[in-house]
Specification:
Elements (H helix, E strand, L loop, with lengths): L1 H7 L7 H14 L3 H14 L14 H5 L6 H11 L4 H8 L3 H15 L4 H10 L11
Helix pairs in contact: 1-2, 2-3, 5-7, 6-7, 7-8
Length: 137
């Protein structure tokens, strides 16, 4: 697939846009980011960049570092959950809306594959490294 994408980068004329779009898709599926960036630059030079798939942002840096992919805000909410705070108390502490906290708690439960807060707390008890001291707001 990598070589096929390289070959698609050689296409010129009216077919250059679709060919480069396919090349970018292949490179990104292979996680060949430098090659995808090169194909995007070439499309820019040829004036067909608007035909390429939109570039996707990766996860936040904090989420990349956390073993379960929790964002910084989710880690803060997790720390408050571990302290036993309710959503309303966490919202006040973090100066966020209760609805935002609800979404973040739901996201934490999903990333822990837990049905409720108790399952998250039990897992934290067995794996305390999932909650670092820097997570506490």
């Amino acid at each position: 697939p990598y070589e096929a994408a390289l070959a698609l980068m050689q296409v010129r004329g009216a077919e250059a846009g679709p060919a480069l779009a396919r090349a970018v898709t292949i490179f990104e599926s292979l996680e060949a980011r430098p090659a995808a960036a090169l194909a995007r630059k070439q499309a820019q030079r040829l004036g067909v960049a608007d035909q390429l798939p939109k570039s996707r942002r990766g996860p936040y840096a904090a989420a990349r570092r956390h073993p379960l992919g929790l964002t910084r805000h989710e880690q803060q909410v997790l720390a408050l959950m571990a302290e036993g705070m309710s959503n309303k108390e966490a919202a006040r502490r973090l100066s966020r809306s209760p609805r935002t906290i609800e979404h973040q708690v739901s996201s934490v439960l999903g990333k822990f594959h837990a049905a409720n807060r108790m399952e998250v707390l039990l897992r934290l008890r067995g794996e305390p490294w999932l909650l670092s001291a820097s997570d506490v707001p």
